[in-house]
Amino acid sequence: MRKLIIGIGGMTHGGKTTLSKSLQDLLNNSLVISQDNFFKVCYYQYDTLDALHMDRMMADISSWQEDPQGFMMSRDRAVKSTASEASNVFVLIVEGILIFQSWVILFSRQYFLQLPYEICKDRRSSRVYVPYPDPPSYSDGYVWPLYLKNRKVIEETVKDIVFLDGTQKSETLLSTVLADIQKMLMVTQR
After folding, report:
1. Global confidence as pTM
2. 50 given a catalytic annotation
């Protein structure tokens, strides 16, 4: 059995979840673990590691690493098995705004969605579901500076990360990343 762990990071509301779920739909035996599911309740500064139950997230990733098939079945995800060697590949897609802060060694491949300030601000202001609205200047005074800080750390410390242009259509991003992953699968199949 072969396992790949794909990391998808970037700005909040930058397209990480959309890309991750689309990949999950197209890749057999794949599963998304989203950092959004590990936020502490009512934690205001959510763009920091303190806002997350990182221990719980890491426990899920470890459980997947130990038994991807059992983990997927426990999450009601079908496991596809055929006579093909390729069906023995399991893909975990980990997505979130801070996933590259502490787990870089986990990932077989890392992608980072970049967006310009204007688009980030527009996407945050047009959110459909907002548990509580951002206070005035939250994007300018907190979210954007933290994104720039995190991106700088990633640029300086994360090797072999693929930076993606988040202004591209979601279909284009999907086909780019999917082709890259399929290429990796071909290499690991040999």
Report:
1. 0.82
2. no
